[in-house]
Amino acid sequence: MAWKGKGGAGRRRRTEVLERPEYGWIWKPLLTLLVLYLVVTLALGIWWSRTPAPHSVEQIPMERRGEAAFDPSARGTVTVATLASIVETLYAKPGGYLRNDLFPPGLWLDNMPHWELGVLRQAKDLARALPSMTPGEVEELEAAIRGLAGDGLDWYRPATEDHLAQAVAALDRELRRLGEDPAEGYTPGAGLPRWLADVTARLDDLALRLAAGVGSQRWLRELAIDTEALPPRTPWYRVDDVFFEARGTGWALVQLLEGVQRDQADVLEAAGVTEQWERLRAELAMTQRRLWSPVILSGSGFGPFANHSLVMALHMSRARDLAAELAESLATASDATPSGAGVDEAPAVEPEVEEVERATDAAGAATPEAAPSPEAADAEAVDDDAEPTAEEAGDAQAEPTAEQTYDEREEGTGEGDDAEAEEAAASGATQE
After folding, report:
1. pLDDT tens digits for 170-207?
2. Region 302-328: what's the mean pLDDT?
3. Which of 156, 182, 249, 266 is 20 to 30 A away from residue 277, measured at CA?
4. How far apart are CA 167 and CA 266, in angstroms?
5. Residue 234 burial by CB count (10 A; 0-12/13-18/19+): exposed, middle or buried?
6. Which of 224, 241, 223 is nearest to 310 (CA)?
7. What is the value of pTM for the model shown?
8. Average pLDDT, whole number, for the chain?
9. Rounded CA gap, 422 and 283, in Å?
10. Please, what is the Cα angle at 104 between 103 and 105, to 5 degrees?
11. CB 118 within 8 A of CB 252
């Protein structure tokens, strides 16, 4: 009977399991899926946080112009093509545009979104300066400015990616317009001082915010940074945000400066600022060196840990000073251009005057019968008033010349006729 009791207990136990199932087993696959999701998002976050490689400014115009790549292009083509490629990178890079993401991994990433902020601000500054550089139509440039406007946080229709795509399309249309008529290019040097002034303001703001995150104020005083002008101290968890914003600013400016230099090389050379322009690019290129640490450190001196904010603040300060000098030099050169043009035109008029004077002298010497001008008569009268030398006086008394007789007849004083009458009377008396 015992075996019957055991069998009945087993049947009752199976019945209870079917009527009241235990779901403890389902947490295992759910936990596995969650771990896999975290691993995948972590890997995607690392991949998406990689800074895109800089573009080749030489190849950008050829790639964007397509079939018209080998046709002549107007001034400003490289600048517009470089700006379009930089804006396109914001939503075409791995992971796309991350500043408006609402889900992981973009939600918890902060380095790349702030890098995008630095790039976007530099694109806005140059786009606002482009209408002042061209004497032609600015409709496409205004459309690009509208596409780049805003804070870049829109995520719902239309999202920021759509605005950026519209700006790139407008810049491509402007690029085609420049290729259709190479003669209607951008005005040489126009708008550069304004753009560099905006760049100076951006770099100054970044330098101050980076300096505010440095641990010791003593290091700032050694770098000649005014500690009283610093903004409120940057929290430790925001130091990396400002650092990557500065890296994005440097990444965009290095390429934009090269594009503008290729379009305005003659203007920079005429103003004598080509070397300063190269130094500015080199200073900003130093901000793109490889970052070996996985986190942004705030160490000290020659200690085991670096101070990334301090180094970046130094580069931003130097770049700010160079940009300010360039803006001032180009503004001075543009103001001096009208006066210089007037001086260059003066020699073109002088040869004509000299030729007329030489022709008049030659004509007077070849044809003495022509009536002299009043100015020539006055000049000869002045020469006659001058005191003659002893030999000239003797010769004049001995034998009057034809020119003197001609001058006396032209003056109409009658002295020439009296002199002839006296000479005739004297000769007649001699003959008698």
Report:
1. 999 999 988 887 777 899 999 999 999 999 999 999 99
2. 89
3. 182
4. 29
5. buried
6. 223
7. 0.71
8. 77
9. 97
10. 140
11. yes
